[in-house]
Specification:
about 180 residues, alpha+beta, Rossmann fold, nine-stranded mixed β-sheet, 5 helices
Length: about 180
């Protein structure tokens, strides 16, 4: 069921965004919420399978589209971001000295850190993400470019966790005589 949920949600996100190669996608994920527990309360190892399933689907989808995936840590690491060093250099992100742990960063961040060729943690990404997905109420909006536009998903759950997704659009400038691109 979780595998079907994540595939449906990802398909819908790609249909409702204009993500391109080289864009930045942020994911915040509470694996505890996916299995029906309160965020941060699952025992060590209890969410391993769900993390494998969800992370596997997301990382594969982003890699196929050549979209840079970054993962938000939990509040115990001040919502810092796990990314590959190449992504940090590409965007000029400042590295910090921490290694995510299951109860200080979260199982999903630990999985991303362990899956990257050259992982780093950065304090923040300065609202550079082009879109993102919040699985279980972990609040990723601070990482997306202004203006954040919520995506109205038809499939709103992965397992037991509520899913929110968003993208950015350029700011509208001008006045009543201005003309805007409808596809942005």
């Amino acid at each position: 069921m979780v595998k079907d949920d994540i595939e449906i949600v990802l398909k819908e996100i790609f249909e409702k965004t204009n993500l391109k190669e080289g864009d930045l996608f942020v994911v915040g994920c509470s694996s505890s919420e996916i299995i029906g527990n309160t965020m941060g309360t699952s025992a060590d190892g209890e969410t391993d399978q769900v993390v494998e399933t969800v992370y596997g689907a997301i990382s594969k989808a982003m890699a196929e589209r050549k979209i840079d995936l970054v993962v938000q840590c939990c509040e115990h690491l001040n919502r810092a971001i796990v990314c590959d060093r190449s992504v940090a250099k590409k965007y000029g992100f400042e590295e910090v000295n921490v290694i995510p742990q299951p109860h200080a960063g979260g199982a999903f961040a630990v999985k991303h850190y362990g899956s990257l060729p050259d992982p780093v943690v950065v304090e923040n990404i300065g609202q550079k993400a082009d879109a993102g997905m919040d699985i279980g109420g972990v609040m990723i909006g601070m990482h997306i470019h202004p203006v954040v536009v919520p995506l109205r998903l038809e499939h709103r759950h992965i397992g037991e966790a509520f899913v929110l997704a968003a993208r950015h659009r350029p700011k509208y400038v001008g006045g009543e005589r201005a003309v805007y691109h409808k596809d942005m």
